[in-house]
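Internal ticket #5521
Category: modeling
Description: The requester needs a full-assembly model to guide mutagenesis choices. All entity lines are attached below as received. Residue total reported by intake: 583.
Assigned to: D.W.
Attached entities:
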Amino acid sequence: MDVEKTIEEYIRDAFEIGDDPELTRDTHLFDEGFVDSLGALQIVRFLEETFSIQITQKDLVLYPMNTINEIAAVVHEKI
Amino acid sequence: MERQTSAIEFLDRTAARFPDKTAVTDGEDDYTFSRLRELARALGTLLLKKGLNGRNIAVLLPKKLSALIAFFGCLYGGCTYVPLDIGDATERLNRMIEKVGAPLVITDADNAPRVTGAEILLWDSVPEDVDAAAVEKALTAVIDTDPIYIMHTSGSTGEPKGVVVPHGGVINFANWAASYMGIDERDVIALQSPFHFDASVFDIYVSLATGAGIVIMPDVLTRFPDRIPEFLEENHVTCIFWVPGILADIANSGALSRYKMPELKKFTFVGEVMPPKQLNMWMEANPDRDYINLYGPTEATVACTAYRIDGPVDERESIPIGRAGDNMRLLIITDGGRRADVGETGEICILGSGLALGYYGEKELTERVFVQNPLNKSYREMMYRTGDYGHVNADGDIIFSGRRDAQVKIHGIRVELGDIENAAACLEGVERACALLDKDKNLLLFLQTGEERSQRRLKQLLKEHLPKYMLPDRIYGMTAFPTNKNGKIDRKRLLATAELKSAE
């Protein structure tokens, strides 16, 4: 499975971003306002279900998960 | 022993008693009490050398150990510190720096380029030289009515108000809170509150006063309440002094059944009303702990009343805020200006050694709420009018019943919903704005816009006008607001729309 693509498609769909070209895989999702403060939990739940992984509090603290590429890196570590 | 007049004497005492004990850890670094003291004294030495004794120093740093070194360094240098939020818009930060007249900003390489109009000092570029005599001299000159920090709170105009708190207020609060909760050097306190919000004053100064350790909770975890209990267990946390919202989020997340947190014995909430349902969830999952409800505005130094909760509470009743702490006194004063009888509602007014000195540069505003006790006709006695309403019950405990104005609490921080609406209504293309809290206390902003506007763009525009903690969690744009038969905005229908959308 293309992890980056799966995550990007989910985020574009769940946060009503559509095909806005300003969102790249290195865009800060929260600072740039693409994902609101309630969305972080939503994304992590999606990752855990879709990739059958567990993301612990240590992962959240240690790894930045602010861009699609950063989120994908954590998923790659786990699967 | 001589009477303590500067709050930083706590650090001198504790560093002498427990020099090699870990004082603070932030996940990256941990420092002992003696190391923390040395670094802070070096910074104090530098500030004195620069001739800044007695000045207001702004601190623009993330929620890390470095901020504590900056705060304590200011105190060793005889200065007043002003904690700022790195999440605030740059222009707003610079306005605050200018307003408090800070000649110097202590910051890091990431944030330094944002500061204009004041000298910059990078916290990690301070030489480790200590001029013990100069620091000692500056410390001796401090009296307990001298300001220790200026903390900003939401003002009704949208511009923040700087509450000036004296050393004596912090010393009194830390001593009382530590003894009321029975905290000593064996305790570990999890610091959750940002430094620009005064709940963190508990963590910082109770630790310094007792030798208890501090574990700084990374901000990212507040987005993931179900992971917080795991964090508390792994760090052997024994005591928390948190806002109810996060505690309620943890209870709602279902994590209480998976993590027992056996070491967490002292459980305190402050800043807003704890929802009884979620409190009962905590108490049922973890009985035999100390559950304490505190109350108090920044203007009376963190908290000034406490109430110990014995067991599960009646969910239809509010939890009392209890009685005044050491050297503090509360009066309930009726609109007619007399002392309320038992059960009679009036404004909660506070007297005692924890009172702030006033609002920085706001003489008129200060005089409006810091007033002569109207019941004392004999001599000068300052009283702070909170704008909160409450009454005393038959047991002698105070019950908080609400606000005089449209103020709400978001993550324990005071916010006027009208400020958010006013800021939003100024944006181009916005016709009307309505800010509301949903049942989970998320801040929702509804905008009536003539044309389609990107939500992202609207949020970015709002950021220039509002502090970070006042930014909405969700923005909903619509072409027309639902109205009731009086033509007023139908807030219930707006909330229903939001629920419908989030369920999609």
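Resolution: model delivered.
Comment from assignee: The interface with chain A takes residues 27, 218, 220-221, 223-228, 230-231, 234, 442, 455-457, 459-460, 473-475 of chain B (CB under 8 Å).
Ticket closed.
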